Amino acid sequence: MGDIIQKLRDISFDELHPNERLKAESDYLRGTLEQGIADRASGGVGEADTQLTKFHGFYQQDDRDLRSERRHQKLEPLYSFMVRLRMPGGLMSSRQWLTLDDIATRYANGTLRITTRQTFQYHGVLKENLRAHLKVINEAMLDTIAACGDVNRNVICTANPHRSKVHRQVYELAHEISAHLMPRSRAYHEIFLGEERVAGGEEEQEPLYTRHYLPRKFKIALAIPPENDVDAFAHDIGFIADSEGGELRGFSVCIGGGMGMTHGEPATFPRLSDVVGFCTPDQVVEVAEAIMLVQRDHGDRHDRKHARTKYTIEDHGVEWFREEVERRLGYALGEPREFHFDSNGDRYGWYQGDDNTWHYGLFVENGRIADFDNGMKLLSGMRGIARIHEGDIALTTNQNLIIANVADDKRDEIGALIDKYHMVKDVSALRRGSMACVAFPTCGLAMAESERYLPSLIDKLEQSMRKAGLADDAIVVRMTGCPNGCARPYVAEIGFVGKALGRYNLYLGGSFTGERLNKLYRENIDEATIMKELTPLLKRYAKERDEGEHFGDFVIRKGVIKETTAGRNFHE
Ligand code: SRM
Ligand code: SF4
C-alpha cells in the first residue's frame, strides 16, 4: 500500500482533480448520502453525493426529453436513478430473474436493460424507492456494489458457464476476481441495507483501494477463443483463455485497452490492449490485483480524461508497466499463447453444450427487455419462461440473453412460450450483429440518439443490403450517442458515434473479431448522407469481395480506409 499513500500524502489535493479530495474525504464512500437519500425536498442528492452514488452502483439522471420544459416551468429536473447490478459473468437463476423483473415494474420504468458489460440496468428509480429497490436485490443474493465509480467494474466473461468445463472455470474465475477486487467499505450495507456501523482502521476499510480508490474506472474481461464476445482488447485487462482437450491451462494477459475519447481532443483516443504475458488459472486473481494496483499508484489523478490505464501505459511504456506488475507479483509472467478468434458476436437459437444440454440464445435488440407495442412481449415472455425453467439465464456482452441448461422435457414448452409472446422476429444477420448504447432520454452525456434510433437506421441499411444481394451477410454495426464508446463502437466494422442530434461520425474498418480499431471515415453526417456513403460501399463489397472476406477487411484492402495498427494511430 506504501506507494500511493506516500505519494498522495505529499501532494496537496488542490493540485489534483476535485474528485480526489471527494473520495478521500468521503469516509469510505459514505459522504452525506444517508441524509441526501432521506431528504424529500428534492428528487436528487447533493452534487458531491452524485459522485459517491456511482461507487454504490447508481447514477442520478434526469429525463432529457422533459428537461427544457421543466426548466421553463421553473421546476427542478425530473430526477431519477439508473441502478446497475454487479453480476460477474452475467448469470442468474430463474428465481432471481423473477425478482429482478418484479422490481422493474414496482420501482423502475417497467423495463430491464441488458448492458454491454453483461448485467442489468434499471432506469427511472425514484429516490424514495431506492432503498427498497436495493434491499430486494440484496434479498435475491445480488448487489450493485462497484457497478460504477473509480473501482473495478463488473467482470465480464464469455457467456454461459453451462456450455463446457472451461466456460464454467472461466466464469468462476470472473467471480473470484470480482470478489477479490470489491471495495471493502461497509457504507453500502449501512446506508441502504440498515447494517450497524462498526469502526475500523484504514487497512480494514479498504486494504486494496485505500481511501483514495482508483484514479478512474477499471475493467476486466475474460474471453474463451474462438469467441471474442467480450471484446477482450477493449478493457483495462483482457484475459484470453488457453485450453487443450477441454482443460483450462491459463490466460494470455492483455493490458491497456479502453474505448472512451472526446471529440476534437486528439490526446484522448480508444486503444486496444497489448498482450504482455501469460498466467495460470491460479495466478489470475493476483495478476489482476497487481495490474490494478500499478494503475492505482501511477494513473493520472489530475486529469480524468487522461486517467485510464491506457494512458498510464502510453505515458510510461508497456514494458515499464509489465515490469511494475512483475515486481509486485515477485515473478515474471509467462510467454503469451497463440489464440484465434472468429467472431465477437453471439449464438442464437437452440444449441447444445459439451455435455449435450440445451441452451437457447435470444436476440434482444439493444438489450431492452420490455413488452413492445409491436406485439413482441419480451418481459412477459421471459417471466413465463422463468416460471417453468429450472436452469439459469445468462446475459451476454452483446446485450443478448441465453436460456441456459434447459431440461429436455422443458424444451418444447419454452419454445411454445417464445412463439406465444412473439419473442423472436425474423431478424437479419446485420441486425443481430448490431448494438447501441442507451443515450437519450436517460444518459446525461448523450449528444445524439442511439438505442431509440439505431433500429430504424438498420431498417434502411437492410434495404441497401438486400438490394446489393447481401441479405444474409453479417456486418458488425455499433452506435453510441457520444464518443465515450459504451457500445464499443471503435471495434465495429461500421461504427456510428453521435456528434449532435441527428448527426454522427462514421467509422469504418474494424474487424469482425474485435481485434482491430476502425477509423474515422466521414464526420458529422446525417442519415441521408450515411445512406449515400454506405449504399455504394455495400454494393462494391457485394461485387468485389474475396471469398469469405468481411466488410471491415474489405474496406481496408480496397484502400477505402487506412488500417490502424493499434490505438496509437487512431487519429492519423
Ligand atoms: Fe458507459 C458513462 C452507459 C459500457 C465508456 N456509460 C456512462 C454513463 C453512466 C453516463 C454518465 O456517466 O453519466 C451511461 C449511462 C447511460 C444510461 O442512461 O443508462 C453509460 N456504459 C453504459 C452502458 C449501459 C451502455 C449500454 O448500452 O449497455 C454500459 C454499462 C456497462 C456496465 O454494465 O457496466 C456501458 N461504457 C461502457 C463501455 C463498454 C465496456 O465497458 O465494455 C465503455 C467503453 C470501454 C471503456 O470503458 O473504455 C464505456 N461510459 C464510458 C465512458 C468513457 C470512459 C473513458 O475512459 O473515457 C463514460 C464517461 C465517463 O466515464 O466519464 C461512460
Ligand atoms: Fe451515454 Fe455516450 Fe455512453 Fe451512449 S456512449 S450511454 S451517449 S455516455
Description:
By secondary structure, the chain is an alpha+beta fold. It folds into four domains: 31-144, Alpha-Beta Plaits (2-Layer Sandwich); 146-198 and 205-344, Sulfite Reductase Hemoprotein, domain 1, CATH 3.30.413.10; 349-423, Sulfite Reductase Hemoprotein,Domain 2 (Sulfite Reductase Hemoprotein, domain 2), CATH 3.90.480.10; 430-567, Sulfite Reductase Hemoprotein, domain 1, CATH 3.30.413. It has 19 helices and 20 strands. The chain has helices at 2-10, 18-24, 33-38, 47-55, 67-72, 94-107, 127-139, 165-180, 187-193, 202-205, 284-298, 309-316, 318-329, 378-388, 411-420, 429-432, 454-467, 527-544, 551-557, and strands at 58-62, 79-84, 91-93, 112-114, 120-125, 156-157, 220-223, 237-244, 247-255, 274-279, 349-352, 358-362, 368-369, 392-395, 401-406, 434-436, 477-480, 494-500, 503-508, 519-525. It has a five-stranded antiparallel beta sheet. α8 runs parallel beside α11, α11 (284-298) crosses α13 and α17 (454-467) runs parallel beside α18. The chain is globular and about 65 Å long. It starts with a helix and ends in a 15-residue tail after the last helix. The mean pLDDT is 95. Residues 437-439, 443, 445-446, 450, 480-482, 484-486 line the site of iron/sulfur cluster.
